[in-house]
């Protein structure tokens, strides 16, 4: 708090509204007590872009800071902050509130209910980060039923090849394989457990002996996956009769997406480990063959994950409900 006071004394314009923390009479004169704590908490976080630093500046616990932010968001009816383990950013409504604070607006509480897009304004797109193969094979069929029923709803997709930073990217949600999501995130299951398949072209398998166990893969030209830059190559997981093995395979080709891996398989360039649902059309048409099927049980599901927030827009809630997996 002393640091904030000293910055205010030096004329830091961003801290003009923090006079409220120093002068209780001014608080009572200009803002009801139901809102002041939340406003102070929000402004401290918006200025520091860090909950730990903001709590230290205000001289309160992080849990208290979070509670005040949540109460303010509840009063406003919209999320104000996007918080992840890596960073903090402002939502559109949060940016509006920050501008009001910096303009020294003295009627902030009355303006809380008009934060965010106007009800008569065109809807802001819901932004989703997703891998291309999941968008084309799983999400698109669901959206083809859902979107015509909601003509005013807009969805913007960012096709990714690497993990995203919610705060910097401005995403509402991301789709990933598995439910191991970052802290402060909510995970919603979107699919049944996905089975993977080891596949190869007929010409490749005719020229090389078919693998009978995962260890036989060491003699094959395997097409690898590196999910994102800097990550290790993905080890191929197998299980049979409660025996689990994770194989680090070798080969000439490495991709960061499954679709080009399947194309390389069709071209006879090696074996690949891909989601079975992507391989089914080519298996059915006889372009490729599956091996080690008895070693490939279902692994995990796809999940949509998003920042945990007490305030979720009705449009986003409807979209999540449409995409949610049901037995």
From TrEMBL:
Signal peptide: none
Any Gene Ontology biological process: DNA-templated transcription
Keyword terms of this UniProt record: DNA-binding, Transcription, Transcription regulation
GO molecular function, one term: DNA-binding transcription factor activity
Keyword DNA-binding set for record: yes
Domain HTH lysR-type span(s) in chain numbering: 41-91
Pfam families the record matches: HTH_1, LysR_substrate
SUPFAM superfamilies the UniProt entry points to: Periplasmic binding protein-like II, Winged helix' DNA-binding domain
UniProt family annotation: Belongs to the LysR transcriptional regulatory family.
Record's protein name: DNA-binding transcriptional LysR family regulator
Species of provenance: Nitrospirillum amazonense
Taxonomic path: Bacteria, Pseudomonadati, Pseudomonadota, Alphaproteobacteria, Rhodospirillales
